[in-house]
């Protein structure tokens, strides 16, 4: 048990049901766990096990069928749509398997976008975006459009965009799933470095057991249930 002041996320009795024709599909049921501030937690499991849906619920992009998620002292199910949007914009950084960069914009403009959407002046947003591109090793690529960047570079831009708002939580869904093994390794290494340097609390859904091994804790989602497994028990 973590001391209460150190708990960043508290998940209690979480259930997700999808209506499928005449029947209900229970994706998972009665999930309960806590994530301490500063932890790097891997969520592993087969495709279709519900890892992405779980991350969506934790980031207030989707709602559970039952149960509660608390981020610090905020109960996500009690938030209005506007408050949930504020929570996502302020407290959560998302990185997906696909980078979702806007192709008509440069790397700099893509990274600056979350600040511009908050109404920050262009000069200020541009300065912050430049700093974050340097942080992910792409200072020289700021004025390239996303189509001119490699897959690994695109994912680094997506990571800079996720973190420019200085969120408390980083939710990453198969962030290296589309990359070759060497590029994936360097992107994961970058995530681990930024997690440490910016004292993030990170949840990473991944198929890659070698990456999961390098996290503080690992939860396996299978058959609708979660079990904690020792990172060192996973294949390297």
Question: Please, could you describe this protein's structure?
Answer:
It is a single chain. The longest helix has 17 residues, at 181-197. The mean pLDDT is 89. The chain has a six-stranded mixed beta sheet. A four-stranded antiparallel beta sheet has the order 2-1-4-5, covered by helices on one side. It is globular, with a radius of gyration of 18 Å. α3 crosses α4 (122-135). Helices cover 33% and strands 28% of the residues. It has a single domain, classed as Rossmann fold. The protein has helices spanning 51-58, 81-91, 107-117, 122-135, 151-163, 181-197, 209-213; strands spanning 7-20, 23-36, 40-44, 66-71, 74-75, 92-95, 169-173, 201-205, 217-222, 225-229. A hairpin with a 2-residue loop joins β9 and β10 (225-229). It is of the alpha/beta class and 236 residues long. The chain is built from seven helices and ten strands.
Q: Tell me the distance between the termini.
A: 28 Å
Question: What count of helical segments does DSSP give?
Answer: 7
- Tell me the Rg in angstroms: 18 Å
Succession of helices and strands: EEEHEEHEHHHEHEHEE
Give a short summary of the structure:
The protein is an alpha/beta fold.
What are the salient characteristics of this protein?
6-stranded mixed β-sheet; globular; single chain; Rossmann fold; 28% strand; 4-stranded antiparallel β-sheet; 33% helix; 7 helices
Mind sketching the topology for me?
Blueprint: E1 7-20, E2 23-36, E3 40-44, H1 51-58, E4 66-71, E5 74-75, H2 81-91, E6 92-95, H3 107-117, H4 122-135, H5 151-163, E7 169-173, H6 181-197, E8 201-205, H7 209-213, E9 217-222, E10 225-229
Parallel strand pairs: 3-8, 3-9, 6-7, 7-8
Antiparallel strand pairs: 1-2, 1-4, 4-5, 9-10
